[in-house]
Write a structure and sequence with these properties.
The complex is a heterodimer.
Chain A: E1 2-9, E2 12-15, E3 20-22, E4 25-28, H1 30-38, E5 44-52, E6 58-61, E7 63-67, E8 70-74, E9 93-99, E10 101-106, E11 117-118, E12 133-141, H2 147-166, E13 176-181, H3 185-191, E14 197-205, E15 211-215, E16 218-219, E17 226-228, E18 238-242, H4 252-256, H5 259-267, E19 273-282, H6 286-302, E20 307-311, H7 317-331, E21 335-342, E22 363-368, E23 372-375, E24 380-383, E25 405-408
Parallel strand pairs in A: 1-9, 2-4, 6-24, 10-12, 14-19, 14-20, 20-21, 21-22
Antiparallel strand pairs in A: 1-13, 3-4, 5-12, 6-11, 7-10, 8-9, 15-16, 15-18, 17-19, 23-25
Chain B: E1 4-8, H1 11-16, E2 21-23, H2 29-41, E3 64-68, H3 76-92, H4 101-120
Parallel strand pairs in B: 1-2
Antiparallel strand pairs in B: 1-3
Classes of the chains: A alpha/beta, B mainly alpha.
Protein name (chain A): Glycine reductase subunits ABC
Keywords (chain A): Pyruvate, Schiff base
Organism (chain A): Companilactobacillus tucceti DSM 20183
Chain lengths: ~425, ~130
């Protein structure tokens, strides 16, 4: 499967009378975007659009998802298959990306909330999304709606918005181009017979309400582990329905730009043979965890891998999946590298994960989510500033009277992302 | 007759599964962990993971654990998990303030949803 990615570099955004890209500026027709994002969903009471640019004294809170606008210009299917449009097979052909722009969704879902993106100041240093030109969708559903539907309504509105904006890149000549290719297994193995064969084990958070991830629109809770061409994610095969754990959830933007897959491709044919991905889930019962981790190890073995990268999403319960996947693969003689973040306490002295194994001797960490940070006052707040007191990682009084916030790093969207999308880490001292 | 039961302090769980729920109204998450650990020492198996989702155990005031009725040898796997969860709870420390009613309801809904996932995925050896 061969995919060309054409990046159209977006340096600025503004509202305009037509949604289009002109000389690196993305103009958005606000009314048309509102109509497209609403999509005739009668469960939406209000939907408004704001712009937040790098350097603005703007705070977005609470953030639900961040989504990159893309469009499929050649090859089967469309972006977000099974979510927007049909479930055609994606991952080949050509895809245009509005690189530097993002759709951010905000609005209350349940009483406790999390996820802050500051566009400037101290907080901006801790999130990759402060560097993007963000189109913020703030929406509220009708009053009678229950929690499950509420989550779905806001999730789908975000994808419709990103899909609409992505279309603006269809006929624009990209500024840069990248080509990714993975051949069918036997051919791929033959292509670099002397290099170690590496598989990526991509664990998706799938535990229930506000903890779900979708594969071609299907809730990944119900899947058994399966093979995937790595290029499929670049076309939106995996979408996030994850609303908790702001610091270490994988927003859809991060799936679309999977740094693990991108990095594995950059070494592909040089020092490794990246033969593919196995996606697996993170469920609630211990039997489901055992089934998925056993099956993951079996699939990785069937692929003939010498080594595997394993990533997780979330904290606590998923640590068990991470450790089981590590043990099962190592027991089959397949070397593993784990990617995670840490909850090591505010002083960094506590045990970092809820589970551990001596076989996990090669681990990449994306930082300590309990680290305390201080966020200054902003001129503009998009969303619901009052929730700063009840977000995870905050405490009563976190939100000071002047609007500044003292809280743990876990309040910041993407700060300790467990796919390694950001630049934080931690050291043993 | 069911051969498992739910230990919970979540009233929404008690309401949905009255026949199979041991409801401890005023218990904390720590109490639920401790009482489950006691049951595990008496031979029960833990069926769902004690750390639910990404909501930290000191963040939600509710916890629902599914345990087998089994009485017999100690299942070390279950014990390791519950002790590990207790360690996490102690590390994160207590929350010092209460929640509004609507927020409590949302925590109940999420706890119930994660429990429903567990009941849906119940191993075949268990039945309601």
């Amino acid at each position: 499967m061969r995919l060309e990615i054409g990046n159209i570099l977006i340096k600025d955004i503004a509202f305009g009378s037509k949604t289009e890209v002109k000389d690196g500026t993305l103009f958005v027709d606000k009314d048309e975007l509102i109509e497209a994002a609403t999509g005739g969903d009668e469960r939406i009471k209000s939907l408004d659009v704001y712009l937040a640019k790098p350097g603005d004294k703007t705070r977005i809170i609470p953030v639900k998802d961040v989504i990159e606008p893309r469009c499929k210009v050649d090859g089967k299917g469309n972006i977000f298959p099974g979510v927007i449009g049909d479930v055609d097979q994606v991952g080949s052909g050509r895809t245009h990306v509005l690189k530097g722009a993002a759709v951010v969704t905000t609005g209350k879902i349940v009483g406790f909330q999390e996820g802050i993106i500051d566009m400037s100041g101290e907080g901006a240093k801790y999130t990759p999304f402060s560097k993007l030109n963000n189109i913020v969708i703030k929406m509220e559903p009708i009053d009678s709606i229950k929690q499950h539907e509420h989550e779905e309504v806001i999730r789908l509105a975000g994808f419709r918005a990103a899909n609409y904006i992505g279309e603006a890149g269809r006929n624009v000549e990209p500024d840069e181009e990248k080509v990714y290719e993975t051949k069918p297994l036997l051919e791929q193995v033959k292509q670099y017979p002397d290099l170690p064969k590496v598989v990526y084990v991509y664990a998706l958070q799938t535990q229930g309400l506000m903890h779900n991830t979708f594969f071609y629109g299907a809730n990944a809770m119900k899947i058994v582990p399966t093979f995937m061409y790595p290029t499929e994610v670049f076309d939106g095969a995996i979408t996030s329905g994850n609303c908790v754990s702001a610091c270490d959830k994988n927003p859809s933007y991060v799936h679309l730009n999977s740094p693990v897959i991108d990095d594995l491709y950059s070494r592909h044919g040089k020092d490794i043979n990246f033969i593919g991905c196995v996606i697996t889930n993170e469920n609630v019962t211990l039997q489901d965890k055992k089934r998925s981790s056993n099956m993951t190890a079996k699939l990785v073995e069937m692929l003939g891998a010498d080594a595997a990268i394993i990533s997780e999403e979330g904290f606590g319960n998923p640590d068990a999946d991470l450790v089981m996947n590590c043990n099962n693969l190592e027991n089959k003689g397949i070397k593993t590298v784990l990617v995670t973040d840490e909850y090591a306490g505010q002083d960094g002295a506590s045990q970092s994960l809820a589970d551990s194994t001596p076989k996990g001797d090669a681990v990449v960490t994306a930082g300590n989510a309990n680290e305390v940070i201080d966020l200054p006052v902003m001129d503009t707040v998009i969303g619901h500033p009052e929730v700063a007191n009840i977000i995870a990682g905050a405490w009563d009084g976190s939100l000071r009277e002047d609007g500044s916030i003292e809280a743990e790093l876990q309040v910041i969207t993407g700060s300790t992302n467990e796919l390694g999308f950001f630049n934080l880490s931690a050291k043993t001292i | 007759m069911a051969n498992f039961y739910i230990l919970t302090n979540n009233p929404m769980v008690e309401e949905k599964y009255p026949e199979i729920t041991e409801f401890e109204e005023d218990s904390t998450v720590g109490d639920i962990f401790n009482h489950s650990r006691d049951a595990i020492h008496l031979g029960a198996n833990l069926i769902n993971h004690p750390l639910a989702g990404s909501i930290k155990p000191n963040q939600s005031p509710y916890k629902s654990l599914v345990l087998s009725d089994r009485k017999g040898d100690l299942d070390m796997f279950s014990l390791t998990l519950i002790e590990g969860a207790n360690q996490v709870l102690k590390k994160l420390g207590p929350r010092r303030r209460g929640y509004a009613e609507s927020v409590l309801e949302d925590f109940q809904v999420i706890d119930l949803d994660l429990l429903d996932s567990a009941i849906d995925g119940l191993p075949y050896e268990y039945h309601e």
